[in-house]
Design a protein that fits this description.
Helices cover 63% and strands 10% of the residues. It is α+β, with helices and mostly antiparallel strands. The strands form two sheets. The chain has a four-stranded antiparallel beta sheet. Strands 2-7-4-5 form a four-stranded antiparallel beta sheet, with no helix packed on it. Strand 4 and strand 5 form a beta hairpin. The two termini are 60 Å apart. It binds adenosine-3',5'-cyclic-monophosphate (CMP).
Length: 410
């Protein structure tokens, strides 16, 4: 799949040309419209873009297999001026196959701008309806021209469009009516299509309205469940307040998505790349990592797990067994002596703590409490041990930090 951002202006030009083709080809196929000069020039310009697009794609893919037979047919049909080559205007409709490329590009853009999903859907539906109305009008135009009862006055296309819209919307003034059997069948078909289209529009609008803020809806659902649970289990109101606060914070920062869950869904190589990128900010803040080998940084970033703490939350208490050490991505923590009140140190972005218990194999020497909202990254005991073993530089740094911190305390 092409990356949506690669050759963006070119793919947008192809999309615009294919859209133009979607409008001009059926008109030409109807055999009733004599194109004025600007439309002639536009038509040739579109054919040129399609031909260049075919050549570029062919050269980029290098083989029929990589190109895909289906896509080759699509691009080939789009690039051939069939009416001009064969003298049969009707064949022009085959060029509409190129619209598959429009759908393809729309889907790619869709996946990139998923947050604009509703706007996209609305736009997509409007364009689709516009095309359908235009094609049906061209069909009527072609039929009408074959009919011996020509009642078209004024602009023929406009009259056909008028008939089509009045029929599709079931207004049907009856001033233009089918005269032959074929026209009658066609009119029945357009009326039935109108009903389908109405359903499509209503369904789409209803869907868009119910999905206006999907993440908000999810948040409300989660909070409802949470509130019901907390009430049912009779949690103290202070605790309830903190739990709500925690969810609100997580939602505000990450729309409630859990980094680890998203990472676990990715392939191993993507996991390593994405975690390196995500933890880049915290890694950049830790002075030691600036000079560390890429391998060490990669290994640590893969093992780090994000944790969010609320103001006043204890991260651990003095005397507990240590299972993790922590890096501060954002926020401040107090290191409190065993009495629980004396502040031994305040650590902030880029600092780490909790290494003592892991290295010395003793219980936590102090209580560490979040001052404000804190985004931390935890490194578990096993990963810590294996990293220390394989990276003597990191081990020496931790040792030095322990000497500095605990020199006189232990
Ligand atoms: P640990 O003993 O596992 O748990 C408490 C942590 O607080 C300890 O590891 C250190 O990371 C940190 N710590 C202890 N004393 C100090 C200090 N004086 N300055 C900064 N951090 C400290």
């Amino acid at each position: 799949m092409n990356h949506p951002h690669s050759a963006k202006p070119w793919s947008l030009l192809v999309v615009a040309s294919a859209t133009g083709l979607g409008l001009l080809s059926p008109l030409l196929a109807s055999g009733q419209i004599v194109f004025p000069l600007p439309l002639h020039i536009a038509g040739h310009g579109i054919t040129l873009v399609m031909m260049v697009d075919l050549i570029v794609r062919w050269r980029r893919s290098g083989s029929l297999h990589a190109y895909g037979v289906r896509w080759l047919c699509v691009d080939l049909l789009g690039a051939l001026p069939l009416a001009l080559l064969t003298g049969l205007p009707g064949l022009e409709v085959l060029r509409l196959a190129k619209l598959a490329r429009v759908v393809q590009t729309m889907r790619e853009l869709w996946s990139v701008y998923i947050d604009k999903w509703n706007t996209f859907r609305l736009l997509y539906s409007a364009i689709l309806i516009g095309f359908v109305v235009h094609w049906l009008s061209c069909g009527w135009l072609a039929l009408r021209a074959a009919s011996p009862h020509l009642d078209n006055t004024g602009n023929t296309y406009l009259r056909a469009l008028y008939w089509c819209v009045t029929t599709l919307t079931s207004v049907g003034y009856g001033d233009i009516i089918p005269r032959t059997d074929v026209e009658t069948v066609y009119a029945i078909f357009v009326m039935a299509a109108g009903v389908g289209m109405f359903g499509y529009v209503v369904g789409n609008i209803a869907h868009i309205i119910t999905n206006l803020h999907p993440s908000r809806v999810r948040y409300i659902e989660t909070m409802e469940g949470l509130n019901a649970f907390m009430e049912y289990r009779g949690l103290p109101s202070q605790l309830q307040h903190r739990i709500r606060d925690y969810y609100a914070y997580r939602w505000e920062k990450r729309l409630g998505f859990d980094e680890s869950t998203i990472l676990n869904d990715l392939s191993v190589s993507l996991q390593s790349e994405v975690s390196l990128f995500l933890k880049k900010d915290v890694i950049e803040k830790v002075p030691f990592f600036k000079g560390a080998t890429e391998e060490l940084v990669r290994e640590i970033s893969l093992a780090m797990r994000p944790r969010v703490y609320m103001p006043g939350d204890p991260i651990f208490r003095a005397g507990e067994q240590g299972e993790e050490m922590y890096f501060i991505g954002r926020g401040e923590v107090n290191v409190l002596a065993k009495d629980g009140t004396t502040v031994q140190a305040v650590l902030r972005d880029g600092d780490f703590f909790g290494e003592g218990a892991l290295v010395l194999g003793q219980p936590r020497s102090a209580t560490v409490r979040a001052i404000g909202y804190c985004d931390l990254y935890a490194l578990d005991k096993a990963s810590f041990a294996s990293i220390i073993q394989r990276h003597p530089g990191f081990a020496a740094h931790i040792e030095a930090m322990i000497k500095e911190r605990f020199g006189s305390h232990r």
